Every structure is written in C-alpha cells, then in structure tokens.
Amino acid sequence: MRYVAFIHKEDDSCYGVSFPDLDGCISAGDTMDEAMNNAAEALGLHLEGMQEDGIEAPAPRSVDQLNADNAEDMDTATVAYVSAIIDLGSTKPVNISLDKGLIQAIDAEAKRRKVTRSAFITTATRHEISGVVMTRSVKDGGPELKYGTRDNNKSKKIVSKKGYSISVADLPRG
Length: 174
Hints:
Mean pLDDT: 74
Number of strands: 9
Distance between the termini: 21 Å
Strand content: 15-25%
Number of domains: 2
Largest sheet: 4 strands, antiparallel
CATH class of the largest domain: Alpha Beta
Number of helices: 5
Order of helices and strands: EEEHHHEHHEEEEE
CATH topology of the largest domain: Double Stranded RNA Binding Domain
C-alpha cells in the first residue's frame, strides 16, 4: 500500500513530511533522503499503532484526489509516494522460482554480508518496495513526469491533466 506524502522545505529548516490521508502522521529530516527514510518509518509505525488500537487505516487517495481536496498544499509541496510495510510479527514460508544464476548471486552476497538468503531477499524486497519518490518539477514552463531507476536514466515528459507536475526517481539505497 502506498500513501501520498507532502514534503515542505522552508529556508533554514529541515524537510517536513506529512501524510494528508493520515492525520498526525508526520516526519522530518535534514536531507530529502533522511526525510523520506524517516517518513517510511513514521508511516509504518503510525499504521501499526492504528492496527493495535483497532482503527482501520483509510484507503490511500490518489494524487488527483488529493489535488482536488488539498489544492493549496499541492501548490507548495513536493509530492511523494511512500510505501507502507507493516511487520505482522511472524514469518511465513513461501516457494518462489528464481534463475539459478540469480540464486548464486543472492547466496554469494548474503554470505558476504553474513545473513541468510531469506534475510537478504527480505531486505532487498523492502528496499525495492519503498524506493520510488515523486517530486514536483516544472521545466521550461510546463509540467513533466520523469522516471528513473538504478538500471536506467530514461525520462518521459507528460503534461499533467490537473496542472501540477511530478517527477519520479529512485531514492538512494542505504
């Protein structure tokens, strides 16, 4: 599940992150990367707290829905998707099929890091799920959508129907 976050930055302040769908769920960081990592942690903890209190988490709204409801915030914020991963406190065995070469690479890296195959795959999966960020960007007077991954730096230009612009890029992996 991915929630939209608003990121604000004032002069001489840290980056502040809030989730318009989750009242009271906020975070901050001195850098954008730190703010986004802290936001992911805050989101998970907030949703876990709601679950413990028997409160159902609201369904995440889309950027278009939020634009209609929070026009002022959309004008001044960087917009990001943050993935919610809630630890349920137990593991479950799964049967997956992977290429033999990939399994060898996973095992070699897991051994180098002194972790199990399962721990390595879990960490890699968490990083992959939580790695995409959307930010506002206006270039040459018009909105654009940029998408980049660790594997390529391809970009696409798309004009937003609602008049706001976003760019999508992977966060650095830590």
